[in-house]
Amino acid sequence: MLDPKIKEEFDENIFTLSKGPNQDSLETFLDLAYQCLAESQAQRPNIGIVVEKIKNALQLQKNHKDNLQISLEDIKLATNDFSNNNHIGRGGFGRDDYAIWTPKLPHDYEEIFKMSKESKKYLSKKKKDLHDMLSEGILLQKGKVLFSLGDNDEMK
Fold first, then answer.
1. 42-98: pLDDT as tens digits
2. How many angstroms separate the CA atoms of 133 and 91, rounded?
3. I need a labelling partner for 30 at 20 to 30 A (CA). Which of 53, 68, 101, 151 fits?
4. 117 Cβ partners below 8 Å, 6+ apart?
5. Residues 21 and 42: beta-carbon distance below 8 Å
6. Inter-residue contact 126 to 77 (CB < 8 Å)
7. Nearest-CA neighbor of 56 among 29, 34, 75?
């Protein structure tokens, strides 16, 4: 059986390590370690300086860890108590009444791009980039026709 206080401290350390060390804390520890490895005793820091720098590094790490935690009250305040008006996606928490809009290419987009002068250039792009190009408009039929998608992905 594990003492609950030890388990709590152990869990806190795992949390801190999984989030990574604070950069300032890490630099303080590394600088101190480098100083302690100096060739001559005169170049090494005395124990008082070592203790002071370790305390400083630990305080930086503690502040970093504390900054990563947000209270439930602050989250409720920021989300207006998890108001439905703040939902932006679907499926994450069992809700199916919200959908994430994703740009959609017309089903015949390959044929549309083949009608342009630079069809090979277009067909090697990612679908998101193709959607953006179609939204801006492309010239077809030797530059005589402008094809573009409207705001709701309807063809113009």
1. 999 999 999 999 998 888 877 765 555 666 777 777 777 777 766 655 445 554 544
2. 30
3. 68
4. 139, 142, 143
5. no
6. no
7. 29
Give the chain's mean pLDDT.
69
At 115-134, the pLDDT tens digits run 666 666 666 677 677 767 77
Tokens matching residue 156 = 């113009």
Compute the distance between CA of residue 22 and CA of residue 65 in angstroms, rounded to an integer: 8
Residues 6+ apart with CB under 8 A from 132: 103
CA 156 vs CA 39, 107, 121, 138: distances in Å: 76, 15, 22, 11
What type of residue is 25?
A: S
Could you give the angle at the alpha carbon of 49 between the alpha carbons of 68 and 55, nearest 5°?
20
pTM of the model: 0.33
Q: Contact, 99 vs 90, CB < 8 A?
A: yes
Contact between 109 and 125 under an 8 Å Cβ cutoff? The reply is: no
Amino acid at 18: S
Q: Residue 28 phi/psi, 5° resolution? A: -65, -45
Cβ neighbours of residue 61 closer than 8 Å, sequence gap 6 or more: 16, 21, 22, 25
